[in-house]
Each structure stands twice: as C-alpha cells, then as structure tokens.
Design a protein that fits this description.
Elements: H1 4-22, H2 26-32, H3 34-47, E1 60-62, E2 67-69, E3 72-77, E4 80-85, H4 89-97, H5 102-125, H6 128-131
Antiparallel strand pairs: 1-2, 3-4
Helix pairs in contact: 1-2, 2-5
C-alpha cells in the first residue's frame, strides 16, 4: 500500500528536478527549496536513526483545543528521560509560535515558502547580476 501523498511528492520532486536540470536553472530552483532543504537537514538525526524516529512525525491534534501541537518522542540520556519535539519544520513552527489550527498552520507555512521564494528571486536576479553574466 502506498500513501497518495508520498506518490505525489515523489512525482512532483522528480518533475521539478527534470525541469531544473533541462532548463539549466538548478541553482535557482535550489533557492526556491530552501525550506525543504532546511527540513531535511534538521531531520537528519531522526532519518538516520541517531535519535528515535517514530512512524508519524506530524503534529498531533488536540481535541480539547481543536489545535495542532508539536508531536514528541522520548530520549533516554544519562539515566533521565527527555521529551523532544520531532524534528520537522512543521513542529519547529509549532514550538516557536504555539499550538495553531490546521488552517493557520497551513497559511503560515505557505507564507514561509512564498517568502523564501521571494528571497530566492531577489538573490538570483538582484545581487547575482553583479557577479555573473545573466
């Protein structure tokens, strides 16, 4: 059984990669994916099992408040248990800004992605023109 979201993500990622490579703008495309690259780098300790990696690392729904909160896992170090948030950008946002509704969280993450793309456009077509022939 495959989760439809996984299939779509693989397809979309491959489509972006092919377009970036064939269009000769792979560096520009990488600037647009800064949040995804940051999410991967932040997740590396869990992905490579240096820290426990539960099956589902997405936020948990709290029925009492109707909001999402960061999901957690427990690490045992030095004889003490320490509860940590799962290492994803979504959980970082929830840790920094507190529990949010699904709509609020989605809008916040879309705004973050749009801001990163705007900075990517600026870097690609602003200061880059001074250093490279564009």
């Amino acid at each position: 059984r495959a989760f439809v979201g996984d299939t779509y993500c693989y397809f979309a990622g491959m489509a972006f990669a092919v377009v970036g490579i064939h269009g000769h703008f792979s560096k520009t495309l990488l600037l647009f994916f800064v949040p995804q690259v940051a999410n991967f780098l932040w997740s590396v300790p869990q992905l490579f099992h240096l820290l426990p990696c539960p099956r589902h690392r997405l936020p948990q729904f709290d029925p009492a408040t109707g909001k999402l909160r960061a999901s957690t896992f427990t690490v045992r170090r030095g004889g003490q248990d320490r509860v940590m948030s799962n290492m994803t950008i979504i959980n970082v946002v929830l840790d920094l800004f507190g529990p949010m509704g699904e709509r609020e969280l989605c809008i916040f993450l879309l705004a973050l992605q749009a801001a990163c793309c705007a900075v990517g456009f600026y870097l690609r077509y602003g200061p880059a023109q001074k250093f490279f022939e564009v």
